[in-house]
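Consider the tokenized backbone below.
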């Protein structure tokens, strides 16, 4: 009990409750001013921030009430989640995210694994109460998916998901051959912050635009007209496709969002590689490396190769119970 009290006090210090209350008071005054909603985008951001701050205060108060009631298991779970938030202070941790999964080499096995990962993450997003929308999906010919790209939106989404980026490895008995041989498959997860337009301006003259008919689900109307969009950034060759929305302009805006994030990533990668080179290190290990291994045969285990965290509850992890892995990565990885 005394340990919980100390942890709660430490948490309150880190969150700086006095500062939170001041910010709440300021935002509440602003929201009551005439003309507050004239700039709807800014007003929405401020109201979202106000709701987040009020929720943080409520969570702390709830923790103290649970502790008084002797509900230590509930305190532990809620406290761990709030402690994790104190680590999320990176530049874009509060941003929404572009989240993509790509099947690696290995044909139908890898495509099936990519679809398993898609299911795992969608279950995780649903458990967290996050909103998501698929912007592009390429199905496999026989089974699974070649790739899927989606947007995920809520508070601190990028901060929670950024350490999921990298190569995910699956070891299992193959369901695609009669001998059920042991098979290793790989899939790559990409996570990028969604940046505001003011953060990274795009030159329209550098973007090649193409509209085409959607090949995905979306009803007859979507497939009859050229609603899908492909954008190519001519200086870098980066190409983005979006075909999930009903209207072409919606797909164009979503594609621009993804393109902006990919250009940010390219620049961030270039900076990181240069820093590593100057320090005399190798650059390859910093990006796209294997981060987690999922073994379903001959035993069951999921292990994060960076933090060392592991569990034998592989089915539970694949059913979207990822909090322990996500929180371990947030608390131990700083980059």
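A designed sequence for it:
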């Amino acid at each position: 009990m005394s340990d919980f009290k100390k942890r709660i006090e430490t948490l309150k210090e880190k969150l700086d409750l006095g500062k939170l209350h001041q910010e709440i008071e300021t935002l509440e005054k602003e929201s009551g001013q005439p003309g507050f909603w004239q700039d709807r985008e800014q007003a929405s951001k401020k109201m979202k921030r106000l709701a987040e701050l009020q929720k943080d205060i409520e969570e702390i108060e709830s923790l103290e009430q649970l502790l008084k009631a002797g509900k230590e298991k509930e305190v532990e779970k809620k406290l761990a989640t709030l402690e994790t938030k104190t680590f999320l202070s990176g530049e874009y941790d509060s941003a929404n995210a572009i989240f993509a999964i790509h099947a690696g080499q290995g044909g139908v096995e890898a495509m099936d694994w990519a679809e398993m990962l898609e299911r795992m993450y969608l279950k995780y997003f649903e458990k967290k109460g996050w909103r998501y929308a698929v912007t592009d999906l390429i199905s496999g010919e026989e089974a699974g998916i070649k790739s899927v790209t989606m947007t995920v939106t809520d508070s601190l989404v990028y901060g929670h998901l950024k350490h999921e980026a990298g190569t995910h490895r699956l070891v299992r008995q193959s369901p695609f051959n009669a001998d059920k041989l042991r098979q290793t498959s790989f899939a790559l997860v990409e996570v990028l912050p969604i940046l505001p337009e003011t953060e990274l301006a795009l030159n329209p003259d550098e973007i090649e635009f193409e509209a085409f008919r959607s090949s995905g689900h979306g009803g007859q109307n979507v497939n009859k007209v050229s609603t899908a969009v492909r954008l190519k950034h001519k200086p870098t060759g980066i190409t983005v496709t979006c075909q999930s929305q009903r209207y072409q302009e919606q797909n164009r805006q979503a594609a621009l969002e993804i393109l902006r994030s990919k250009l940010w990533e390219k620049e961030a990668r270039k900076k990181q590689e240069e820093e590593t080179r100057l320090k005399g290190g190798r650059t390859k290990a910093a990006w796209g490396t294997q981060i987690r291994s999922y073994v379903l045969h001959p035993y069951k285990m999921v292990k994060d190769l960076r933090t060392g965290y592991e569990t034998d509850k592989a089915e539970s992890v694949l059913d979207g119970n990822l909090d322990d892995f996500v929180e371990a990565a947030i608390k131990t990885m700083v980059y």
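Residues 217-224, 281-288 have pLDDT under 50 and may be disordered.
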